[in-house]
Amino acid sequence: MSTYRITFLPDNKTVDVDTDNLGEAHDGENGSVLHLADIHHIDIDHACGGVNACSTCHIIIRSDESGFEPAEEEEEDMLDNAPGLTLTSRLACQAVANGSCDVIIEIPAWNRNKVKEVH
């Protein structure tokens, strides 16, 4: 069993993550930042449904990057289209923490979807 904490900025919301009890992801890779945000009702815009086909779920890692699995080439290629790119930018749908340490990510202002669809 691996547990760690992830903090979502700018809301400064920290959640405990048990990697053995995540459940199946609806959007993004299992265990990805997008998956965890969805579980904990934290909004990250993701136009493509979390399948690495756009860059709308761009986030910035504000903690040690070693807490995440490395980005694959397809993610890096897609990140080239993201506004406000930094050296620690990732796609929330692809960024999976490895559980080795607590992590902090920032959701840039343009990726905070405040509009909700009513079903």
Write a structural description.
It is built from 2 helices and 5 strands; from the N terminus they run ββαβαββ. Helices cover 12% and strands 20% of the residues. The protein is of the alpha+beta class and 119 residues long. The chain has a 5-stranded mixed beta sheet. The protein is globular. It has one domain (3-111): Beta-grasp domain (Ubiquitin-like (UB roll)), CATH 3.10.20. The chain has helices at residues 33-39, 73-79; strands at residues 3-9, 13-18, 58-61, 89-91, 103-106.
Task: Explain the layout of strands and helices.
Layout: E1 3-9, E2 13-18, H1 33-39, E3 58-61, H2 73-79, E4 89-91, E5 103-106
Parallel strand pairs: 1-5
Antiparallel strand pairs: 1-2, 3-4, 3-5
**Approximately what portion of the residues adopt beta-strand conformation?**
15-25%
CATH architecture level-2 label: Roll
What are the low-pLDDT stretches, counting only 5+ consecutive residues below 50? 115-119
- What assembly state would you assign to the polypeptide chains in this entry? single chain
- End-to-end span in angstroms? 36 Å
Structural descriptors:
disordered C terminus; 2 helices; single chain; 5-stranded mixed β-sheet; alpha+beta; Ubiquitin-like (UB roll); globular; 119 residues
